[in-house]
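Example 3.2
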Amino acid sequence: MDHREQKEIKIRPVVYLISGIIIGFMLSGILGFNISDISKKTSAPNSQSPNIIGENLPSFSESVVLPVKWGDIGKQMTESGVINAGELEKIYSQRGGLDEESKKLLYLANNGNLVIDSKNSALLLNLLWALGLGNKNPVLENGPMQEKQYGGAKNFASTGGWTLAKGDTMDHYSKHNFINLSPEQQALVEKISKTIYRPCCGNSTYFPDCNHGMAMLGLLELMASQGKSEAEMYKTALIVNSYWFPDNYRNIAKFMANSGVQWENVDPKEILGINYSSGQGYSDIVSKIQPVESSGGRGCGV
């Protein structure tokens, strides 16, 4: 074998390697994927959003850390009597009892960010319900709750249904300064509250006539007081609503998937709006799909 042949043998493997790389890039362009796309598809679910299961539907099985601190709100509410802690614990003793983390939300002053999951979502609903009901706010004093046609604010599920206050519930209605909002923050709460609905009825959060509406009002007030942006408030509201109405939002997710939009890409403001999240909007959505199996859920009581 002469020197020229030896040189050709050494060069050939390099040529093959380069050719393989070029062909690989050509195929990736034709097939429409790349390495980063593959890594995205095989990565672990985002712990900050509901888990995704079959058909890309949310399972709401994982805990989500919400971008809002609870602080001493629970302590303020138990001390003021909006929440009768003894009665609340009595009710939950029949549901397995309150764990230590839940008790901290009631009694301690240094709580961090709220965490929601399928196990504590009902408790957070009740705590935020009490906050929305008891915190002094123009929405409760000047909004639809006070319209004469309804005979006063005391006749709604969100007021008459709150049976865990000390004394008369209406003695606590919009009476406590748990959260103080600036004019700008109040305007933001009112703006957003008029665009967030819940599947149990046809009213927006601005008309908090049931527990879910009153709880959402409390959440919006708390987030606004901590300087959260409009986008953060919508995103958080959708997460929380999804834990309160898991079957409803899995059906909405299925409808969106059928329309070519995966759940992780939806616009929270749009999904929370009247066309999807109101009672009538949801009924229209569910009539267009084969609904997911219902797992049941709590109504508008404690």
